[in-house]
Write a sequence for this structure.
């Protein structure tokens, strides 16, 4: 079961932003352009439109469910990383999230995929993330192919869905 306990002020802020978004306070969804923690720029829609589904794994360093799924995620990245683009996403402002702790934890859990700090909660808001872990798979045209609290059992279905979808 996902851990929704507000352990940081960012969880409370995230809840407020999601409530505002549900009420229509945000006119447009957040763009799918961002930088990873190493400063590399990405455009998730462009990646997906080129035939490579994009996976956002929202996690936190203190989340026991996130830690528990880490070996399975690492295996999926090893198996599908050439055909599916994986991003870890840690949401919350700098005052609540320590980048060094994120890097240490990602390394300790075996994460080799890019990590993104969602400081302004744009990605969390777009995908209505209210707890962790949350996994979102995006295909062509920014279409959400999967959203859940557990890792999918069969990643290959996203390859098939994205390759058979018409380019947007």
């Amino acid at each position: 079961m996902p851990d929704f306990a507000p352990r940081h002020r960012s969880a409370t802020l995230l809840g407020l932003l999601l409530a505002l978004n549900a009420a229509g306070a945000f006119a447009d969804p957040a763009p799918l352009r961002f930088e990873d923690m190493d400063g590399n720029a990405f455009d998730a829609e462009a990646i997906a439109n080129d035939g490579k589904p994009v996976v956002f794994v929202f996690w936190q360093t203190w989340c026991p469910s996130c830690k528990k799924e880490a070996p399975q995620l690492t295996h999926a990245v090893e198996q599908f990383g050439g055909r599916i683009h994986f991003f870890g996403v840690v949401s919350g402002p700098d005052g609540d999230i320590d980048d060094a702790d994120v890097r240490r934890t990602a390394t300790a859990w075996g994460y080799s995929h890019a990590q993104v700090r969602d400081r302004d909660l744009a990605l969390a808001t777009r995908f209505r993330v209210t707890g962790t872990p949350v996994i979102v798979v995006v295909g062509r045209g920014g279409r959400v192919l999967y959203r859940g609290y557990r890792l999918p059992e069969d990643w290959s279905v996203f390859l098939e869905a994205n390759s058979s979808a018409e380019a947007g």
Remarks:
- Strands lie at 33-35, 41-43, 54-58, 85-91, 114-118, 134-138, 144-148.
